[in-house]
Amino acid sequence: MVDLANRMSKQMDVIIAYSVRKQTPKDFEKYFDNNIKLIRVKNFTRNINPFKDIKAIFEIRKIIQKEEPDIVHMHSSKAGAIGRLILSPKKAKLFYTPHSYAFCKKDEANWKIKLYKLVERILGKKKCMTIACSKGEYEEAKKLTKNSMYINNGIDIEQIDQFVLRESERQMDIKKLKVCTVGRIGTQKNPNLFEEIAKEFPQIEFTWIGDGNLRDILQSPNIQITGWHDRKTTIKQLYQNDIFILPSLWEGLPITLLEAMYLEKICLVSDVMGNRDVIENGIDGFICHTKEEYCEVIEKIKNETCDYIKIKHKAKQKVLTEHNINKLAEEYLKIYSKGDGCY
Fold it and tell me: Do 2 and 31 contact (CB within 8 A), yes or no?
């Protein structure tokens, strides 16, 4: 969001209506260019809360009436639901990116998943273009609305280069491998499996870059939990590892995976939407289904029985050509400028 908004702000007025979570950096405003207007929606929450959601609707209505935007782009299922309910395509062009549909979550009751999908089908009839962030998400979007397309997520490679510019070049030591993941320690990121893998390699240092409510699951003595950090520190910590594991139960298209690929980490990921849209198994990373498969790949790396150097280089090249933020911004500008012809 930061990377995209900063690039958009050079050619149009950008306003971010946002909410705050526990892990939101205290100085997040500094991430955005000075010409971007930030407006907090105080009652906007991640989870369903009828009382606060109604208040949030009135807050958003007030913002729209005051700012009179030509384009409204809603990010996440919750924002997409509220925005499509209350906003008129006659007054602004509407766009929506789920970043992994709510009904893809594995930690929700079955009735909630059915409800989320029903809501998406109903709201999918509204004149609003769904822009999926990956090919897999696009396949889901097509089932819900004819007004759908996709643009792959991208990262700011120039900024990442600046972050690691003064870092000593990472020389991979097979005898002292370092394994990490990045994100919230919650159900989605599958800390249980991360813990199980770490237990199989007590001699290897495992690091969870982030924090979350399920941190107590990570009990293996070779696991370090860093806590939350700003993006620059997170990138530096990621850079100091050799293997990146993302055993998620669901994804949209994870930015951390793209960052790991660009930094030439050997990436081992679960076979879910988003991950498999980026990683080509055995070519630029590895797609794993069980603890045994993750462990098998790590053993191959340890024993140097796979061409991990070639795999790392191919991963970085893919990000450079297909997931560059500059390319992403150009695609969005084209779509935003198309007008009603994009529906």
Answer: yes
Name which of 219, 194, 200 is nearest 295 in CA terms: 200
- Comparing CA positions, the residue from 249, 237, 164, 233 lying closest to residue 205 is 237
Per-residue buried b or exposed e for 304-319, using 16+ beta carbons within 10 Å of the residue's own CB:
eeeebeebbebbbebb
pLDDT < 50 positions in the chain:
341
pLDDT at 183: 95
Looking from the CA of 242 toward its CB, the CA atoms found within 13 Å total: 16
Which domains does the chain possess? 2-154+324-342 (3.40.50.2000), 157-322 (3.40.50.2000)
The predicted structure's pLDDT at residue 343: 54
pTM metric for this prediction: 0.86
Identify the residue whose tokens are 């191959």: 300
Distance set, CA 189 to CA 80, 105, 151, 253, 334 (Å): 23, 11, 23, 13, 34
Strands (E), 110-230: 129-132, 148-150, 178-182, 205-209, 223-225
Task: Give the Cα separation of 102 and 100 in Å (integer).
Answer: 6
Cα–Cα distance between 250 and 265 in angstroms, integer? 21
Rounded Cα–Cα distance for residues 290 and 120 (Å): 32
Angle at 203 between CA 221 and CA 268, to 5 degrees: 90
Alpha-carbon distance of 94 to 127, in angstroms, equals 7
* Cα gap 37→18, rounded to integer Å: 11
CA-to-CA distance for 165 and 236, rounded, in angstroms? 10
Coil, helix or strand at residue 318: helix
